[in-house]
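Here is a typical protein record:
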Amino acid sequence: MTTFAVVGAGWRAGFFWRAAAGLDGLDCVGAVVRTPRELPVPTFGTLQECLSAARPDFVVTSTPWPVTPEVIREAVGHGLPVLAETPPAPDLEGLRALWSDVGESGLVQVAEQYLLMPSHAARLALVRSGAIGTPGQVQVSSTHQYHAVSMMRGFLGVGRGPVTVRATRTTAPLVDPLVRDAWSGDDTAHDAGTVLATVDFGDGRSGLYDFTDNQWHNQLRFRRLLVRGSHGELMDDEVVRLAAPETILRSRITRYTSGRDLDLDGFDTEHLSWEGQVLYRNPYRGRRWMDEEIAIATLLEQTAAWVRGEGEPPYPLADGIFDHRVALAVEEALATDRTVRTGAEPWDG
């Protein structure tokens, strides 16, 4: 049994202990909270108290941006592996200081889960199969900042290094009918900002960032993903490609779900396939989890395997820091209305 504790007790923290409750071989032994409260796991007032009483194998930080670096430092000081919620530090100065303090420890992973979601995992498998040739550009319009950068890099297969960023922001009326987990009750249009940015990773590889305020939850805006390759492109779940000389094919990624019509097995994601190939199988069939829960459970199991020395690091601190560094460059380009070129950093490579 591999065990972990969560530092924090907010909305995001609950995803981790709920996932652990549905996983074999993984147990959440407690949560570190500032003020006493009733939770489905034991609570502790400090990390030291948690370590002494529960002895977790790793900790998950689910804390506000300014708090996360201090929790990471404390855990690493105890020699404890960490899975840190994004981003690992709020600003460039904080990223550099955190890397200086704990970067060489090898104990810190970042909870970047987007490419572990079933749809994205299937799309990534298709792109990596070479079906659309060499990917050259990724356009992301679904999530913000570091998450979008992580998706760009994952589909492009690029590492960490200097980038060139250009950005602009426009404003237009938009109804915002949903907040994070409920209807807003407001059907009045309010001004919403949209950020468009280009990220040049070099060597002919680039990303287009397109995000409207609250686009994660606003169902009046589509989530869009476009991956352009040398021999075709992937647009959401539709693929166009050059399959042979003078032969262009169009096809779709399809998700098979149980529980429809007279299928009485219960509603669940089974697998995603393309042209007769299964690209992704849900490893948690029967639990009826949504995509976010599947991604977080996958991330937790990958982290546990890494802690046991049985798996690769799921998302090293250097990658999480780099993603947010690029996101900060987008903000700088917006604020200055200038092209921003980032320099080499100690976490690059």
Q: What stands out?
A: The longest strand covers residues 189-202. The domain at 2-110 is CATH 3.40.50.720 (Rossmann fold). The mean pLDDT is 96. The first helix runs from residue 11 to 21.
